[in-house]
Amino acid sequence: MNRFKDLKVWQASIDLATEIYNATKAYPKEELYSLTNQTRRSAVSVSSNIAEGANRNGEKEFINFLSIASGSGDELQTQLIIANKLKFLDDSCDALISKIDYTQNMNYKLKESLKQKTASKL
Predict the structure, then answer these.
(1) What gap in Å lies between CA 118 and CA 102, rounded to an integer?
(2) What CATH number is associated with residue 26?
């Protein structure tokens, strides 16, 4: 069984979600139940899927959950780009997108490592 709290990708995704929550505090109040909520949900989904997958029944299921986490990361990046175009974010958008890219890269490397491990068992 994987201990998700020890995974650097999970730790990075927790930090990212915290930063997203702080950044979205500045969004207009009328966005609370739309873009603010959706952006926060996407950010939380990344770490949640990594944690859930780490405690599933093997590498194949973990890989699937890492793929879902990756999709949530792409969704999050899209929402930040929209928010930036709407001028809801200040100069923090580029830094946040860089952190998403960093987390996505870690996720990808872990996923590839698990795929190799799974393939070597065959």
Answers:
(1) 24
(2) 1.20.1440.60
The domain of 26 spans 4-120
Quote the CA–CA distance of 110 and 41 in Å, as a whole number: 23
- How many domains in the chain? 1
Angle at 85 between CA 81 and CA 91, to 5 degrees: 75
Q: Read off the pTM.
A: 0.92
Position of tokens 């175009």?
Answer: 85
pLDDT tens digit at each of 122 positions of the chain? 458 999 999 999 999 999 999 999 999 999 999 999 999 999 999 999 999 999 988 899 999 999 999 999 999 999 999 999 999 998 889 999 999 999 999 999 999 999 998 888 76
Question: How far apart (Å, rounded) are the C-alpha atoms in residues 108 and 84?
Answer: 26
